[in-house]
Amino acid sequence: MASTSPVTTAVFPVAGLGTRFLPATKASPKEMLPVVDKPLIQYAVEEAYAAGIRHMVFVTGRSKRAIEDHFDTAYELESELEAAGKQALLDVVRAVQPADMDCTYVRQPRSLGLGHAVLCAEHIVGQQPFAVLLADDLMVGEPGGPPVMAQMTASFAQHGHSLLAVQEVPEDQVSRYGIVAGTPAEGRLIDVERIVEKPAPKDAPSRIGVAGRYILTPRIFQEIRQQPRGVGGEIQLTDAIARLMRKERVGAYQYAGKRYDCGSKAGFLEATVELALQHPEMGETFRAYLKTLAL
Ligand code: UTP
Question: How confident is the model over 249-271, as pLDDT tens digits?
Answer without folding.
Answer: 999 999 999 999 999 999 999 99
